[in-house]
Amino acid sequence: MDVDDKRIEYAVNNTEILRRPKQNLATFGTTNIYYYLVTEPVYAELMEHVAETVVREGKVIAERPRIVTPYYLSRLDGFSQNARQYFKMLLSEYGAHAPGLFYTYRNEPKELTIVSNSLPEVVDKLNTDIDKSGDPLTTIIKGEDQLWDVSLLKFIHDMTRSSLSNNLTQMGSRGLLNVDSGGIPVDARVRIEEMFSRVMRGEAEPYELKDELHRWDLFDEYEDRFLALFKKGRRE
Description:
- The structure is a single chain.
- The chain is α+β, with helices and mostly antiparallel strands.
- It has a domain of about 140 residues.
- A 5-stranded mixed β-sheet has the order 1-7-2-3-6, sandwiched between helices. A two-stranded antiparallel sheet has the order 4-5.
- Helix 6 packs antiparallel against helix 7.
- The chain is elongated, with a radius of gyration of 22 Å.
- The protein starts with a helix and ends with a helix.
């Protein structure tokens, strides 16, 4: 294990979720989680008798989880060769069309504040403020200053694990985990229909829909409908 791996492992092991959101990730919608990530400043050990706490605020946006297959994952762009080798392992172990959940997140950092109080005092005040606001989707995370983003990823991983069972149960009850004869999950068909509607309303770009169809190897099946979008645009 190299030095960077050890630092990351240390940051993960020293991350604490001091206040958990009161709700899991939504199965059929977007979840917005506001976070306060508190750390002792990296220079704290050099300053005696000075209590300061770094407070980073932001929002983690979890998009609606999607049902995907190893085949679909193998066709995503932006992954390294090592990741693609992992996808091949999934294909070999589970088959091309075994359904699983795919979560996507976006981090929107807001503010960074250095507070002249100890970390426990800051956490107590944050808890009081959150209790007053009554927001069930606010979290407090204690992390490591230099690797605070690793601490945030640890929180995201924990949220995903705690939500997975409920998300799968709800999707299964609606039949969205079912796979058709071509290996396409019902949820993927639903998503494609939603994307067609969004493109028609001008809320999504046609290339996003085209890319999704190609990932599922479905462009030929939907080609006429896709091209009709442009014919409709010219008539209008």
